[in-house]
Amino acid sequence: MSLKYDSAKKLRKDRNKWKVSTPEEFDEREKVFLREKILHKEPTIKTFVRITAGKAKNFKLEIPKTTRPLTDRMKVQIFDILQKDIYKKKVLDLYAGSGSFGLEALSRGAKHATFVEASKNAIYILKKNITSTGFLLDSEVIKSKVEEYLYKKNNEEIIETFDIIFLDPPYKLYNTKKTYKMEEIINMASNLLPGVQDSSKKFKGALILKHPKKYPLEKLSLDNIILLDSYNFGLNTISFYIIK
Question: What is the pTM of this model?
């Protein structure tokens, strides 16, 4: 994936060169300037993401604006590790975006995927991707903030569990001075793994986290899980957690 941010500084320089003769003309130029400034704050995705294997192999997914989708290389690495562990499993895709992880899991034989996403625009595109790949009956889309969804699930009388949980939080949550936020989210998510709710389960579950390479995972106090391994992809890292 390539994210490009055009310089707002360059826009301001161009603005200083304006030659306008009327207040109306200035107002019109100002509207254009502000619109371009807003657009240039949003990353422009220069690639596409596809399903890499299984029933929907090579299907190109539509990507919502400003998202950082799970790349093909990341998915191949993740599912090479999971291998047959994904077959007939329940998947929870948090901060789902395009649904890249959950749809890949369904394509490779997962039984069901629940997608949790707060953005209205992303939800629209996510539902299109689910319908186009043919996994409508195997999917559930929840429009909710992930924190609110997890809090609700953790406080149900009978806690629903998921075999594989994937988290791809927005970068603003990876604040190195406020690690308690990610700590709380990961702990609530890990509580939904089957091995936490029932230690007799043969497959106890796995949690997969996409995060900035330099994020200090060692500072997190995690209740239910331990780090198994991490894999670097440029500025991003994929970390696998299993039940303690």
Answer: 0.80
48 vs 49, residue with greater confidence: 49
- The CATH homologous superfamily to which domain 47-243 belongs is Vaccinia Virus protein VP39 (3.40.50.150)
As a whole number, mean pLDDT of residues 195-215 equals 93
What is the C-alpha to C-alpha distance for residues 52 and 39, in angstroms, rounded to an integer? 31
pLDDT at 17: 59
Rounded to an integer, what distance in angstroms lies between the CA atom of residue 111 and that of residue 113? 7
Strand partners, 114: 92, 140
Q: Could you tell me which of 53, 107, 109, 110 has the C-alpha nearest to residue 76?
A: 53
Collapse the DSSP code of 237 into the 3-class scheme (helix H, G, I; strand E, B; otherwise coil) and give the result: strand
Burial pattern 48-78, b for ≥16 Cβ within 10 A else e, equals ebbbbebebeebebebbebbbbbbbebbeeb
